[in-house]
Design goal:
The protein has 213 residues and is of the alpha/beta class. It has helices at residues 12-23, 40-43, 77-87, and strands at 4-8, 28-32, 48-49, 63-67, 91-92, 95-96, 101-102, 107-108, 113-114, 119-120, 125-126, 131-132, 137-138, 143-144, 149-150, 155-156, 161-162, 167-168, 173-174, 179-180, 185-186, 191-192, 201-202. It folds into 2 domains: 4-93, Rossmann fold (3-Layer(aba) Sandwich), CATH 3.40.50; 95-202, Hexapeptide repeat proteins (UDP N-Acetylglucosamine Acyltransferase, domain 1).
Length: 213
Amino acid sequence: MNDDFLLIGSGGHASVILEMLIEQKLNVLGYVSPLPAVNQNLFSDFHWYKNDENILLFDKLNIKLVNGIGSLPGNSLRSDFYKKYKDLGYRFATLVSKESSVSRYAILEEGVQVMRGAMIQTGTSVGYNSIINTGSIVDHDCSIGSNNHIAPGTAISGHVTSKENVHFGTGSSVIQSINVSENVVVGAGTTITKDIVKNTVCYPAHIFKKVID
């Protein structure tokens, strides 16, 4: 028996996820959100459940939840939702875009989402509820922790390890064999060249041009 899918969220990330579900011809029962969908054209054919408690109406053995809540630094809504409904016995879908490239020797845990144009190389593992976003690269033998967000255009070299709750900002990069501890934010455009301790925010270097008269 094939699973049915229930999408959580109605914003930008949920829109991209819904389009992927449609392309893969998966049976979407509707979406759950207290707010109307941002992209009405995309969501118009799907039932709108306006309260999280509506999820409890569905048999947890027959559906998978799809976490369409976006991931932003300092906002735990996505990870809190995952933990709450995982503890209640619900399963989360792992979703991989047909337009991504994932090695058959990579490991994706429950709830991982791999978006269009992303690449994950051999020997890499990605922890639960993480997003490998549009056009990002995770090279060989990396260990990406749970509740990570590798934002669009990020490049992570081989043998990098990240712990839980790490946000790699858009266009950031990490050289090989770096360890990034938990609760770290790597700012957009930042290049990481040394290990990062927990609870750290990393900013890119700023270069100012001085005009000489």
